[in-house]
């Protein structure tokens, strides 16, 4: 029998869940608020894409640096500054007088959000071990995964009952609670005076992400042949190539390429790229489609995905425990394929957009598949790396998932066209399903289950 967690371990798990939930929630709560934002501040689908992707660009670009800072300076310290920064940026979003101001504030939110997730997961991996670690990751997954789906529900209620601005202002409550709990943790060790921060890598990484994403979003307005699109695209790709070259040569890289020599790490991250591109694209367009085409209120559009949250809360801890016992390979293969089938089922949606018969069946299948996937995916990737590099390993995985999401959303206008209609949603559902099935196939072919350890050695 596995001993129950200690008081410190329970505190660490609560802090890790809250801090990650804040960052993940803000990436999804915005989806159902987008129509209301553009009605008040102006702009079309490009503005909606930028409000989402400004956050994801900086989060994806800085999260690698944040992982290095977490390992070097301590999880508690990095979490503290991330929470304060997120609170300040949330206030700026809530009072935004214009769309450009809001987009800029969202970018600042992404910087602060990047400090939260790697430190949270690194706290778990440095505090738990063995079977308790698998259960902790399952619990973390259950609650943080709901942020991707519960976000639209919370956002919809706030938009319909009050204002889209509360979508950001509400962040202050969980941030304050997390800061109070964080103060109860023991202080971090003193930072090493020789620790170096990879500033060059961070700058190259941000440019390598932001410029191609700018080109993807704005190509609908300027065309691929325009210098406004071509120059950022070329400079962005060159910046990303320079980033990889720099990371391979610098003594203190923010993304150690040596991590990718570990099989489960690199295979898991390739699968992550497919799965999270699908998750971001599918949920983003479904939330907007239900409102703009189906005529749903913001609240009901959020409620549409509530079954996914229920399944995640109910089953993720169990799935995490089973994956810890039998290995992650089967779950990582079957889960994404089931989730992909869920989006293929949504091809039955017609112009009536009837929820019970057309939307709900696909949502339930998708939710079951997603729940089967996430906890084993996290455990397989981070469990393959030694604990003292858990911060940067978590950061790399989260960076890839956010980058996959922002690129998928940036490409949304290419998939659906300038206006989201029924045919455009069907095309997006097909792409989402293909990406999910691809992630499952990659996992099934590439992931290796760890060597079985006797039960009496799993205590810890």
Question: Strands, helices and their partners?
Answer:
Layout lengths: L6 H22 L5 H8 L3 H29 L1 H20 L4 H16 L2 H11 L2 H32 L4 H4 L2 H11 L16 H24 L4 H23 L13 H30 L5 H6 L2 H21 L2 H17 L9 H29 L6 H21 L1 H5 L5 H25 L14
By CATH, the topology of the largest domain is Growth Hormone, Chain: A
CATH architecture call of the largest domain = Up-down Bundle
Number of strands: 0
CATH superfamily of the largest domain: MFS general substrate transporter like domains
What is the highest CATH level, the class of the largest domain? Mainly Alpha
Helix-residue proportion: over 70%
Structural class: mainly alpha
Helix and strand string, N-terminal first?
A: HHHHHHHHHHHHHHHHHHH
The N- and C-terminal alpha carbons lie at a distance of 11 Å
Instruction: From the alpha carbons, calculate the radius of gyration and give it in angstroms.
Output: 21 Å
The biggest beta sheet is recorded as: none
Domain module tally: 2
Can you tell me the residue ranges where pLDDT is under 50 for at least 5 consecutive residues? Answer: 453-460
Mean pLDDT across the residues is: 83
Strand-residue fraction?
Answer: under 5%
Shape: globular
**Treating each run of at least 4 consecutive H or I residues as one helix, how many helices?**
19
């Amino acid at each position: 029998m596995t001993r129950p967690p200690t008081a410190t371990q329970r505190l660490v798990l609560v802090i890790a869940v809250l801090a990650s939930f804040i960052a993940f929630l803000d990436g999804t709560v915005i989806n159902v608020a987008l129509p209301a934002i553009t009605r008040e501040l102006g702009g079309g689908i490009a503005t909606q894409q930028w409000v989402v992707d400004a956050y994801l660009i900086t989060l994806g670009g800085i999260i690698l640096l944040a992982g290095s800072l977490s390992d070097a300076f301590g999880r508690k310290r990095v979490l503290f500054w991330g929470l304060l920064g997120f609170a300040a940026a949330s206030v700026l979003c809530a009072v935004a007088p214009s769309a450009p101001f809001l987009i800029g504030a969202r970018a600042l939110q992404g910087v602060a959000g990047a400090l939260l997730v790697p430190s949270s997961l690194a706290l778990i991996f440095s505090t738990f071990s063995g079977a308790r670690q698998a259960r902790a990751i399952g619990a973390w997954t259950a609650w943080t995964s709901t942020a991707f789906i519960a976000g639209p529900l919370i956002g919809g209620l706030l938009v319909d009952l009050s204002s889209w601005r509360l979508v950001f202002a509400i962040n202050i409550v969980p941030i304050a609670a997390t800061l109070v709990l964080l103060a109860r943790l023991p202080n971090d060790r003193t930072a090493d005076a020789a620790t170096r921060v990879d500033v060059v890598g961070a700058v190259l990484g941000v440019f390598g992400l932001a410029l191609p994403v700018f080109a993807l979003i704005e190509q609908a307005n300027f065309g691929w042949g325009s210098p406004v699109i071509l120059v950022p695209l070329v400079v962005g790709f060159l910046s990303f190539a320079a980033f990889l070259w720099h990371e391979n040569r610098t003594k203190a890289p923010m993304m150690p390429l040596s991590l990718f020599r570990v099989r489960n790490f690199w295979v898991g991250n390739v699968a992550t790229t497919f799965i999270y591109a699908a998750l971001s694209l599918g949920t983003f367009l479904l939330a907007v489609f239900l409102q703009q085409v189906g005529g749903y209120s913001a609240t009901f559009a959020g409620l549409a995905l509530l079954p996914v949250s229920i399944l995640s809360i109910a089953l993720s801890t169990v799935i995490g425990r089973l994956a810890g016992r039998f290995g992650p390979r089967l779950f990582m293969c079957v889960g994404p394929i089931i989730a992909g089938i869920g989006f293929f089922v949504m091809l039955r949606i017609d112009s009536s957009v009837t929820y019970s018969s057309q939307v709900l069946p696909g949502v339930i299948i998708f939710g079951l598949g997603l729940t089967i996937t996430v906890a084993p995916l996290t455990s397989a990737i981070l469990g393959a790396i030694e604990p003292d590099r858990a911060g940067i390993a978590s950061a790399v995985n989260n960076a890839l998932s956010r980058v996959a999401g922002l690129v998928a959303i940036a490409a949304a206008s290419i998939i659906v066209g300038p206006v989201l209609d029924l045919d455009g949603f069907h095309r997006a559902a097909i792409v989402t399903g293909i990406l999910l099935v691809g992630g499952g196939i990659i996992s099934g072919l590439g992931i290796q289950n760890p060597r079985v350890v006797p039960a009496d050695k799993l205590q810890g």
